[in-house]
Write a structure and sequence with these properties.
The chain has about 240 residues and is α+β, with helices and mostly antiparallel strands. It folds into two domains: about 5-85, Phosphorylase Kinase, domain 1 (2-Layer Sandwich), CATH 3.30.200; about 90-225, 2-Layer Sandwich (D-amino Acid Aminotransferase, Chain A, domain 1), CATH 3.30.470. It contains six helices and 14 strands. It has a five-stranded antiparallel β-sheet. α1 runs parallel beside α6 (about 225-235). The structure holds thymidine-5'-phosphate (TMP) and aspartic acid. Aspartic acid (ASP) binds next to β4. Aspartic acid binds near residues 14, 36, 39 and 214.
Length: about 240
């Protein structure tokens, strides 16, 4: 099979660019080094982040596929490019949480680091203009962002992803604190898309709770590149 050709830019987000290809069912997701936080108000770059996030996402999509969780991944034509099934992204961000941190710790007054009695799944509106507000099911149906069946599938799949990734990371001395995943429709089916990386997960060292994720950038903790490198080393071997 001849390699697919990268064509025009379809969409540019804060950390990635999506390109069309000569196959209408496939797109190329290009990982940038740009980093933003607080809905784009804080801007910067993390050296080689694009390469590392592509590598980590490729690996974790593989782990999930092996566990039976269907996802967009096809191949990596280059170190910053991922060839993916073309998805129509559902504008609901699914967040899975095992340990209180970030906005949850703030919202419900539970100290950061508290292990949750049961894992939690939350839903947010993917909208920078509105600051990604949390949505309840009724909001999602009223805005027609997803049907009840699609939302149920996304919620159940997010719980399964949490189980699979938590187990996988324990063996690599990483605690999966929380994570964000996005889904889309491919030929009418709900499928996991986007990326799974230190940009979209909170990852703490198993023994020391040292932060190995984008919170190092958000909170100006230093050693950001080193943390991403360390996650790639532990996850991809
Ligand atoms: P939060 O505590 O700020 O709500 O973040 C929860 C998780 O979601 C954390 O792992 C970081 C990830 N996340 C994103 O991937 N994109 C975002 O825009 C936000 C706000 C969080
Ligand atoms: N990616 C989001 C932004 O740029 C938020 C974050 O990851 O903290 O605003």
């Amino acid at each position: 099979m001849s390699p697919v050709k990268r064509l025009e830019k379809l969409y540019e987000g804060k950390a990635k660019i999506i390109y069309a290809t000569d196959d209408p069912d496939l797109v190329i997701q290009y990982f940038k080094d740009d980093a933003t936080a607080f809905d784009g108000k804080k801007k910067g770059a993390i050296t080689d982040k694009g390469v590392l996030n592509n590598r980590i996402s490729e690996h974790l999509f593989g782990v999930l596929a092996e566990a039976g969780i269907e996802n967009q991944f096809v191949s990596c034509p280059s170190e910053r490019e991922m060839l993916c099934k073309r998805l129509e992204i559902i504008q609901v961000e699914m967040i899975g949480r095992n340990i209180a941190a970030g906005s949850l710790a703030k919202r419900i007054g539970v100290p950061e680091g508290t292990v949750l009695r049961v894992p939690i799944v939350e839903t947010y509106y993917k909208s920078d203009e509105l600051g990604d507000p949390m949505l309840c099911d009724e909001h999602i149906f009223m805005l027609e962002l997803a049907t009840p069946e699609q939302l149920e599938t996304m919620r159940e799949t997010t719980r399964k992803i949490n189980q699979v990734l938590t187990d996988y990371m324990v063996g690599r001395d990483i605690r999966l604190v929380d994570f964000k995943v996005e889904f889309g429709l491919h030929k009418g089916r709900v499928m996991l898309g986007d990326e799974i990386s230190p940009d979209t997960c909170r990852l703490w060292d198993q023994d020391t709770n040292e932060k190995l994720d984008k919170d190092r950038f958000r909170r100006d903790l230093g050693s950001v590149e080193e943390a991403y490198q360390e996650v790639a080393r532990r996850i991809c071997g």
